[in-house]
Design brief:
With 133 residues, the protein is an alpha+beta fold. Helix content is 37%, strand content 17%.
Amino acid sequence: MAILAEMQDPRVRDVTVTYVEVSADLRYAKVHVSIMGDDTKQQLSLRGLQHAAGFLQAKIADRIDIRYTPRLSFLLDQGVKQSIAIAQILQQVLPPPPAVAAAGPESAAAEPPGPLPEAPLADAGPDHDPQPS
């Protein structure tokens, strides 16, 4: 929330925190962020976040009560960008889905198929009684 609402840096825009890795001793935190835009805008926003790390650490220190405030480092998460690229490639490669026919009078007359015919029982011999006694 501090990145969205409290930061005044014009470089930091369209930033989403995807996940955070915290070390076992809680002294370090890697903040993975997704930034919308081209590579230049992403690098600019990333530098803005790194510049504001002290400000954000102070906000964390105000909100949580632990011995050490985690030292923040920011990493660009390419997962969202890669998933969009994969979706575009799949859309180009895969055939389009079949068109659904518009509901017309001929579709109203069509009835669902009836029950399937029963399969004949295997002939077990002349003395075979299909009903249990």
